[in-house]
Design goal:
Number of strands of chain B: 0
Number of helices of chain A: 9
Strand content of chain A: 25-35%
CATH architecture of chain B: Orthogonal Bundle
CATH superfamily of chain B: MetI-like
Oligomer: heterodimer
Distance between the termini of chain B: 67 Å
CATH topology of chain B: MetI-like fold
Radius of gyration of chain A: 24 Å
Order of helices and strands of chain B: HHHHHHHHHHHH
Number of helices of chain B: 12
Radius of gyration of chain B: 26 Å
Structural class of chain A: alpha+beta
Largest interface: A-B, 34 and 21 residues
Strand content of chain B: under 5%
Helix content of chain A: 25-40%
Order of helices and strands of chain A: EEEHEEEHHHEHEHEEHHEEEEEEHE
Largest sheet of chain B: none
Chain lengths: ~300, ~280
Amino acid sequence: MSISLEHLSKSFGTEPVLTDINDVVPDGSLTALLGPSGSGKSTLLRMIAGLETVDQGRIVLHGRDVTHTPARRRNIGFCFQDYAPFYQLSVFDNIAYGLKVRRTAKVDIEREVRELLALVRLEAFADRYPRQLSGGQRQRMALARALAIKPEVLLLDEPFAALDAQVGGELRQWVRSLQHDLGITTLLVTHNQAEAMEVADRVVILNHGRIEQAGEPSAVYDNPVNHFVRSFLGPTTPFNGVAVRPHDLTFVDSTEGVAGVVADVIRLGFEVRVVVTFGDDTTSWVQLTHEEAQRRSVTLGQPVTVAVRR
Amino acid sequence: MAPNRVTPPTLPTQPPRTGWLRWRSSGLFSPGAQGATLLFYSLVVLVPLTALFSSAFTHGWGVFWRDATATEAIHAYRLTIVCSLAGAAINAVAGLAIAWVLVCDTFPGKSLINALIDLPFALPTVVAGVTFYTLYGPLSPVHLTLTGTWVGITVAIVFVTLPFTVRSVQPVLETMTFSAEAAAATLGASGVRTFFTITLPTLSPAIITGAGLAFARAMGEYGSVVFISNNLPYHTEVASSYIYSLASSQNPVAAAATAVAMLLMALVALTAVSVTSRRLVRGR
């Protein structure tokens, strides 16, 4: 199911939140809506789900105009940032909720919920209540609940933001492989560029309610259309009057570069961050691997020549 | 030259207590404070209750049972319980609606209305009683006479116990994010279904607590209902009024016996409320 967004605009009062959004989310893809907080990405996701009204433009799901269709008739799976569990219902009944609304036969509900519990690895937790689950388990329950209605599209709002780094990282890989297996068109909102690069086949970068750039993660990373996208997707450092990636800088033995002095050396695991001060009092930082730094025996006060890696 | 050796600073054996840890260790929960709390509770609550019980059983169990189950008393209990239940039920619905409007809507004069909610608590109940007698009494300006009816008594009870449900539901509503309601919508549930399956269960412990307090308060209501009820023994006499008539007609033992019976009924009601709301919050 592809999602077409055509000239979408939205304001809260006089405050424009989204301006002329145009994009097509391809069928079966996992697309990340990436942007800083306040960029309008969550509002856009809620508009697609029908949880926010559309001021202008159209939302088309695989040829079906759903712009003014109420949320409950869109058949879209939505996972909320706070997981929005039904606290008074057991895990089983949480997942069964959408099926009961659809008047599914009791035996079918039982079978489908058991399958979903197995899918999200919560078989042992069917009779627990949401407050007895950890954050990662609640997230998986919310995912199963959303998948139960066999949605045409899955929307995830900051699905890993509330989890600690390790659980979030594991869940990220699991969601990616699950999405791949199910082949369901998925749109994920995140402010974390590493997360977007890791899980998505496609990223859409939003800033101030406008799409800055959309495309494959590596293509966008390598060819950012403007300074915002470049600096948002990864660290930059000023060099020779332009912003470059610190890992694109290196030390050279020839004189085809800019001469400076090592002002600081910071070891960060396998990488080493070397701060270099140049004659004109500007500063860059150069990202080397630990091996490179050792080979050059980088020390404080050492004169070096910096150039862009070729 | 060898570098000067610096003695490493000795680490504090315990991190400094900050925030609530320090507050907790401040002695507020020390045995002495517990003793003082229990002493205060005994003086204020247990001593009067003990006096009441000993008065009720002055002439033994048989006389107590005769007084507590006198036909006039039974009629008074029944009327009191029916009107209190009706009042609590009406306020459970009305209180929820008022709290909802006060939290979720914006309209001019909202903060004034919010402040006025507690007025029934601030007003002497006799004032409420006189007001209702003027409004719905024999000389009713709106030509609606409710004196001597259980409807009239219930109207007075609804008025004096209104703040309970409003004030118990309001803070719960204020902290709700309604994302569960949005989730139900994406799963296909209608607004009505979402309200009854998601919102109401979330609010029900607060509603039951508020309605339970309203019921307990209504059981003992005197000032607001004494005029509108007409006080006709066996018909429109509420329990508090019956107890007052016993006490003022030189029968303090029977008054105490009836009071003890009322007390036990209120205790049963409050226990039922607490058990029910605890069962409702299971799993939370």
